Amino acid sequence: MGMDFSLQANMVSRQKGLCKEATLVSYSCRYVATDIPSDFLVQIGEANFHLHKYPLISRSGKLNRIINESRDPDLNKIVMDDIPGGPEAFELAAKFCYGVAVDLTAVNISGLRCAAEYLEMTEDLEEGNLIFKTEAFLSYVVLSSWRDSIVVLKSCEKLSPWAENLQIVRRCSESIAWKACANPKGIRWSYTGRTSKILSPKWNNDMKDSSPSRNQQVPPDWWFEDASILRMDHFVRVITAIKVKGMRFELIGAAIMHYATKWLPGLINDTSIPGDEASNCSISNSSSSGGSWKGGLHMIVTATIEDTSSLQAKEQRMIIESLISIIPPQKDSVTCSFLLRLLRMAIMLKVAPALVTELEKRVGMQFEQATLADLLIPSYNQGETMYDVDLVQRLLEHFLVQELTENSSPTRQSSEKHMACNLNAKTRVARLVDSYLTEVSRDRNLSLTKFQVLAEALPESARTCDDGLYRAIDSYLKAHPTLSEHERKRLCRVMDCQKLSIDACMHAAQNERLPLRVVVQVLFSEQVKISNALATSSLKGVESHNQPMVTNRKTLLEGTPQSFQEGWTTAKKDINTLKFELESMKAKYSELQNDMESLQKQFDKMLKQKHTSAWSSGWKKLSKLTKMTNVENHDISPKISASAEQNRKITRRWRNSIS
Predict the structure, then answer these.
(1) Is the C-alpha dihedral spanning 202, 206, 211, 212 positive or negative?
(2) Rounded Cα distance, 240 and 259, in Å
(3) Per residue in 215-238, pLDDT tens?
(4) How many CB atoms lie within 10 A of CB 42?
(5) pLDDT attached to residue 653
(6) Pseudo-torsion of CA 187, 190, 192, 195, nearest 10°?
(7) Is 495 exposed, middle or buried (0-12, 13-18, 19+ CB in 10 A)?
(8) pLDDT reported for residue 620
């Protein structure tokens, strides 16, 4: 009996004048071309299979049980919409039941294996049934090939939970992990066939398609691109298996970053971050507060949080949560920039708070590697500051806690190198925080308390120079011109005037936005520095004079080689240069001292005018008049004695008139 299992059009579709839709529907009917008419219909979705009962019940335990246990002896139709693999897998299984040769490939093997399990095509019905055939192909063909393992694992995305229960996902994941961790020197290369022409290893023995560059050195990230085509849950299974096999954590982190950049396009294509303006800004007296800084940022933030409940947002939220859970715990497994961008998306998409906190701690572990552009994370709470200052405050706290924990560790307590590294890290973080404060200080909604708390979060030893902090304070004063005198003094308390450079001191001395008391402190600290420098130079000069001098310098120079004479000439030039610089320093010192004296006089004068009341000034004037009267009385005492009698008479008359 010849049988041809193929697609045939319905008899209705052969009529002329049918529309295109009727023709498409007709191809959903499948017949077996035999001399015996079909007596059994299997319906799967919109597909109808016109088959025969006997071939099906001879190899399918499920169909055998349904037909034999049915109360209807004339049962000729069954609906199986829940069969894994759909109509395609059932068609291959039906071909196998009819004895037609089925071509097993990496594309159809997972669906056919699940369909065979669903149809219960076991060895109890017939030896060499479909379950045995598909299992043998999976074990001996698919799992030995890198490419086939990737393809089968990709095809399992539509076969849950059957592929999970049959251990197809686990076996393919472990096979991929084993090949990714193998020594790449023994890998033979071939093109994967994708349009990008990314090289991928060929693990089977068929080398017909191998590239001629067989001795090409294999990079350690050769498997990144192939693994990144997997769905998130399957990628997690692969990474978990790779961790168990002991791959380097930095390589695992690189694979995670590669996967994230492919499936999270917003991780890179982010236009809401302005340029790193703080790194190029300089101290100036201009009153501009960065008008273009606000341009469009609030609109971008609002647009990103309009629809966080959409299907795409849910998928990206699931990807972010999964990525956070599989990042290796070791420091520097992924870059700090990647963590901050992932944190930005996690906050925007409202990821679980526990995972956001875990991500913040990871950022705190390597906070010294962050850049200003990555820290400028918008605030997604409308009505508050433009940037999330509270988030940066938490990141800084996690960094300080991590540093304190490492310093208190007994194994590292005596390590001078480790202490130096921690000090360098704090210095880098201090510069970063100062640049961040300069950038966010332009926001008029930024409160003075938030600015002060963030500026004072670092210890004093972290900043060797307060120029960056002074720049941030000056920028805040520009953007907030309505601050009171008390608030300006409170703002300037976070800065140490003794840690300012000469340029910063010169700028601060002419800065009208600073309180007068701060200007005086700056000038006084600069005077102390100059005095200390002059005292040090004078001490060095005394020590040099106390050293024994050569009596006959000309004789010594004539008896020495040419190199010594050249060295002496160079040293003489250096001495003259130092003398010139010392004279210049003395001149600057005298100018600053004069300015200091004049400012001190003005300051004392203002204090006297402020604290002196009208009553006290009246008493002072009265005392002056009394002194002057005494002097005049001493000079004209004869005149007073001559006219005393007349004055008494006048006074007596005046008193009488009053009474």
Answers:
(1) positive
(2) 15
(3) 567 788 889 999 999 999 999 999
(4) 20
(5) 42
(6) 140
(7) buried
(8) 52
- Residue 262 token pair: 């492919």
Bond into 161 cis (ω within 30) = yes
What pLDDT score was predicted for residue 173? 96
169 three-class SS:
helix
Q: Record the tokens describing residue 347, joined without a space.
A: 């906050």
CA distance 78 to 68: 13
Instruction: Give residue 539's pLDDT.
Output: 62
Cα–chain center distance at 51: 60
pTM assigned to the model: 0.70
Regions of the chain where pLDDT drops below 70: 1-35, 184-216, 269-309, 382-383, 409-419, 533, 535-576, 578-579, 609-659
d(CA 10, CA 26): 5
Alpha helices in 216-352 (DSSP H): 224-227, 232-244, 249-263, 297-304, 311-326, 336-348
In SS3 terms, 391-438 reads as HHHHHHHHHHHHHHHHHCCCCCCCCHHHHHHHHHHHHHHHHHHHHHHH
DSSP string, 49-117: EEE-HHHHHHH-HHHHHHHHT-S-TT--EEE-TT-TTHHHHHHHHHHHHTT------TTTHHHHHHHHH
pLDDT of res. 300:
41
Q: What is the total residue count of the chain?
A: 659
523 three-class SS:
helix
Q: Which long-range contacts (CB under 8 A, 24 or more apart) does 481-486 make?
A: 481/513, 483/448, 485/515
SS3 label, residue 465: coil
Q: At what angle do helices 485-492 and 516-546 cross, to 10 degrees?
A: 30
Phi and psi torsions of 335, nearest 5°: -75, 155
